[in-house]
């Protein structure tokens, strides 16, 4: 197995566990608020649902882009750096959003990190594709 693929597998697995933790947090808040569908007007449940949903909106696309980079031959260091930033960003976003409805350091750093990795991986994929004769 190529080291870049192994690097991506590590970060995808860790992100999968983080997604599971966010999902379990939604279930915990649903049980506490006795709400089966929607958020029932409960602010903590609404934040948990959004943290989970926001993860689901961004992470799959970034992982696809990182997979394309690994397949195209980018080194494992690139994948570890971007995977690590994405993981820390998503963890920070989840924590920041769960603690406050408004702006927070975790939420801001989380989104900037996510957008940074998304932008970098997108440009790298385009650049790699354009370099093929």
From TrEMBL:
TM spans (from-to): 61-88, 109-130
Alphabetical list of Pfam families matching this protein: MAPEG (PF01124)
InterPro entries with a match to the protein in the record: MAPEG-like_dom_sf, Membr-assoc_MAPEG
Keywords: Membrane, Transmembrane, Transmembrane helix
Subcellular location: Membrane
Entry GO CC: membrane
Domain of life of the native organism: Bacteria
Protein name according to UniProt: Glutathione S-transferase
